[in-house]
User: Fold this.
Amino acid sequence: MRTSILIAIIGLVFMVIGFIVLAIIDNVLLSSSLFIIGFLLNILGILMINRDIENLIIKLEMESNKPGPEDIKKRPLRKPRRG
Assistant:
């Protein structure tokens, strides 16, 4: 989760640097390339955050579906088959 947030923050920094370069140096090629790199990093970070959230939801569902001690006691005992 930390790496995905870090990637999204780095993407925002690249986008801001792209705007600053455009305003100060007036270099369109450098600023647009920095902006595009930042935008792609933001998309990657958002996708990673979504994947982490889905994994957490799956873990929570697995934990909630585990039988409790009372459920285990109520189960009928299986007799071994002789064959």
About this structure: The chain has one domain: 2-66. DSSP finds three helices and no strands in the chain. The first helix runs from residue 2 to 24.
